[in-house]
Amino acid sequence: MKKFAQNLVKKPAFEYFIVGLILLNAVILGLETSPEIMAQYGTWLEWGNSLILGVFIIEAALKITAVAPQFKRYFGNGWDLFDFSVVVLSLIPASGEYAMIARLARLLRVARLISTIPELRLIISTLVRSIPSMGHVLMLMGVIFYIYAVAGYHLFSAHDPEHWRNLGISLLTLFRVVTLEDWTDVMYKAMEMHYLSWMYFVSFVVVGTFVVINLFIAVVLNNLEQAKAEQLEDLQAPVSRGEILRELRQTQKALVRLQEKLKRE
Q1: For the structural domain made of 2-116, what CATH number should be given?
Q2: How high is the pLDDT of residue 242?
């Protein structure tokens, strides 16, 4: 049974099948948002959800069987643990006081697409690795925001109290500016007081938007290269003694079968 589970979970066709079920589950969850479709096909959609959940349970059981008795290889892997948690949460009854949790747990099944596709796993790993470095970028951005918010309060609060009446509102205004969402309206309002006010806004857009965003991109790209390098090292890891012995036994069995076949011929 263990050998069968190992061979099955390693097959690309099995992975494609699971990806297909996750996509089908995503379609079903989308259809459930339509009252008209639920009124006509609600029972079928519920059956589809239950069937897909059953396949996911079998998948988890096969993966656990494949690593038995070394269960740490499964539960010690973050992605496998995430998949297992999604399956467990999906078992919550979709009725009563836990109905909302059950619906959200169903939605998590779509997130399994990330753990199934290696390229998406690499991107998520890169983003997680980038969090510590991004903290320093966020600190720099916070200092820039604070300086410009205080300066904006002193420069424009008397003329435009709607956008600059205190520090909090000034920070929200700067957030609007840095997202480039109708920021020129705020600038033109300030230019009614003094025509050189544009220098304040243009400098903030250049520093706050282009420079800081490029820093974020640089951090992510740097960690992406490191994640790729670690992934390559894992692929090039030395073969263990147990794996060598296993391969030798399989080779010996293949030679014995070949010898018997030659004798019969």
Answers
A1: 1.20.120.350
A2: 64
